[in-house]
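Sample pair:
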Amino acid sequence: MEINGRKISQSYEPYIIAEISANHNGSIQRAKESINAAHNAGAHAVKLQTYTADTMTINCQKSDFIVKGGLWNGRNLYNLYSEACTPYEWHKELFEYARAIGVTIFSTPFDESAVDLLEELETPAYKIASFELTDLPLIQLVASKGRPMLMSTGMASCHEIREALTTANESGCSRVLLFHCISSYPAPIEDTNLKAISRLREDFDVEVGLSDHTLGNTAAITSIALGATAIEKHFTLNRSEKGPDSEFSIEPDELASLVKLTKESWLALGTGKRDRAKSE
């Protein structure tokens, strides 16, 4: 598994992805500052989400379109997605900015138009979100581009995970990393079930990471000892400034700590990896 020339496996220090998501708070300048801060904190990549409110849902006030429970309780889906989306017209500028400062950038598409945009920008990889893992036509389309894919398992069954992997492989993508993920925002630490990381690796013979929605870095650091080779965390400049995802996002000092401590956890596993770390 490799993204933009960076190998991802247990022979290399953990690959850390800062998910900007909705934490730009409607400002492209804040999005750029977030990308820069994540890079300065040591993240190997930053990630966006590519969708519009209209590609996700319809503008409807009926009960089925209102979030029930959790962080976004009572929010209308269309209004929530309108606030949280990263406008398509920002993408080229953000990709160019990230590349200019030397950090890898890619995104999560949610429909065909998003894939088309990301292909124009020559994204080095794609992420499939947990709730899209059963969208086999989307997986087929993304896989046909021949780029590495990262797929969150979320609430998927083993059958659904295998079906998604088979679809990706048969559609032209052999470079797939699965993320163990709890689709709860934030996710309670006691529900993390990190032993699933070892099970995913054994069952599907792919690299496995952790898409972590818990508060703090404990789960992410612990996951390294269980074989996680990549960590994804939502990232914000300052939680106190609020935003749709701020409650379960880490700040720059926490990201820097995550990079440091996951590497130390990996080094503690031994097997001659210190020499490889130096060479990288």
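Residues 252-267 form the longest helix (16 residues).
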